[in-house]
Design a protein that fits this description.
Distance between the termini: 39 Å
Structural class: alpha/beta
Number of helices: 12
Low-confidence stretches: 346-365, 367-434
Strand order of the largest sheet: 5-4-1-2-3-17
Radius of gyration: 23 Å
Shape: globular
Mean pLDDT: 83
């Protein structure tokens, strides 16, 4: 058992509770202490950490870097995994290194390229990695040109912000007029073209959208781990086709992902996403951060978060290649604890006014996470393998060369309602040899 490692995750997505679980369950059984900060007091990230603090609001990018440097110094952070303001933070890598903190993020040049999807697509085309047709759109006229060109070629048009993450702002354009059809059932990502035009006319300022064809499944997200020497240590694809999930090592997806990671210096954990444009796989997006679904590689016997921390600490991991590919599975939600609060919003009874006001305005101090005493849980995404009712027709993706072993997930560090894992029906898995 080696010395303690102190890791900080700043304002990040809820699924990273599993990232934290995997760090603690590392195969070297090395002690790991996790510091977490967030802007949402009810984020499960805060409850899952050893120490936690609320982040100050309204900081400029420069001020946030100063805040981050202070956090690293005061908490003796060994490895910082930045999500919020990643590009600003990595530009100050030397200052963090002077404090003894390694940044688990690519160099600033790589982050800058892939922060803007248009810049990314241009760079990818230059090195021969296929991307879908795309248009950068600023106004209504440019939107119509792009939509009409795509529709003339037989495609549905969609758009998303040129700079963004997590599918925020993604919409599919339809020609159907707005009607009760759009109000029935759950909200949809489909929006009538006429409403988009109205919104652009009323905006009073330009937008910055990427318009492209709606790409078909399967979607393959390749999780890559690349050392600071530029050599890829791991590249495993996670496949998505409707509800069904699986894994792949097929060179159709893995080879371009490796080439991309090495060519652009995508150090540490990155996620490279592909979809189908007709019969051709094309690159859809590149994330210069760990993916929310990274923990699912545990079903292949890989602890990617810990391997990344080892590389950041200057320790060699060797190649991480799954001996077996985990079998197909589905993703369902499961509850995770949140920190106790002075005035739980879930309670209906009237409480004294003075304590409520004080709790609302008092700054939240950094605290050691206490045992959860309130039954206040928030759902997060947990992989659960579920049998398919009928055999699914899944596009040919990649092989599992040998029978899959029963996967084991790391238990949550704090009390929670655990999710189960059960084998998928063998007939539902259609994975072809590479």
């Amino acid at each position: 058992m080696g010395s303690r490692v102190r890791v900080w995750l700043n304002r990040t997505y809820a699924e990273n509770v599993f990232f934290m679980d995997q760090l603690r369950s590392n195969p070297q059984r090395r002690p790991v202490e996790i510091h977490a900060t967030h802007g949402d007091a009810d984020s499960p990230i805060l409850a899952a950490a050893d120490t936690a603090a609320m982040e100050p609001e309204g900081l400029s990018r420069a001020a946030y870097v100063e805040y981050a440097l202070d956090q690293c110094a005061r908490h003796e952070i060994d490895v910082f995994v930045p999500v919020l303001h990643q590009s600003a933070i990595v530009a100050h890598r030397a200052e963090f290194a002077a404090l003894g903190t390694a940044l688990l993020a690519p160099p600033s040049e790589a982050v800058a390229i892939f922060h803007d999807k248009v810049t990314a697509y241009q760079a990818l085309q230059a090195v021969g990695i296929p991307v879908p047709p795309w248009w950068r759109v600023r106004n209504e006229e440019e939107l119509l040109v792009a939509v009409e060109a795509l529709e003339a070629a037989g495609h549905k048009a969609c758009f998303k912000p040129a700079a963004g993450a997590g599918g925020v702002g993604f919409r599919v354009i339809t020609r159907a007029p707005f009607s009760l059809m759009h109000l029935n059932g759950f909200p949809s990502s489909h929006v009538p073209l006429s409403l988009v035009q109205d919104a652009l006319r009323g905006a009073g300022k330009p937008v910055d959208w990427l318009v492209m064809p709606l790409l078909a499944e399967p979607e393959v997200s390749v999780d890559c781990l690349t050392g600071p020497d530029g050599r890829v240590r791991m590249a495993v694809g996670r496949t998505k086709n409707g509800r069904r999930r699986g894994f792949t090592l097929h060179p159709t997806w893995i080879d371009p992902a490796r080439r991309l990671a090495e060519a652009f210096g995508l150090h540490y954990l990155t996620n490279i996403q592909f979809r189908m444009f007709g019969d051709e796989p094309v690159l859809m997006d590149v994330n210069t951060r760990p993916a929310g679904g990274l923990h699912q590689l545990a079903l292949c016997g890989i602890n990617a978060p810990w391997a990344a921390v080892q590389l950041a600490l200057g320790e060699e991991t060797g190649e991480l290649v799954p001996a077996l590919l985990g079998q197909d599975y589905a993703v369902v939600t499961g509850p995770r604890p949140v920190r106790p609060v002075a005035v739980p919003q879930q309670r209906a009874e009237t409480l004294p006014a003075t304590p409520a006001v004080e709790a609302a305005v008092a700054p939240v101090a950094e605290t050691r996470t206490a045992p959860v005493t309130e039954s206040v849980l928030t759902p997060t995404v947990t992989p659960v393998i579920a049998p398919a009712a009928t055999p699914a027709v899944t596009p040919v993706i990649a092989p599992a060369a040998t029978p899959a072993v029963t996967p084991v997930l790391t238990p949550a560090a704090s009390p929670a309602i655990a999710s189960g894992i059960a084998p998928a029906a063998a007939a539902a898995s259609a994975i072809a040899p590479a």
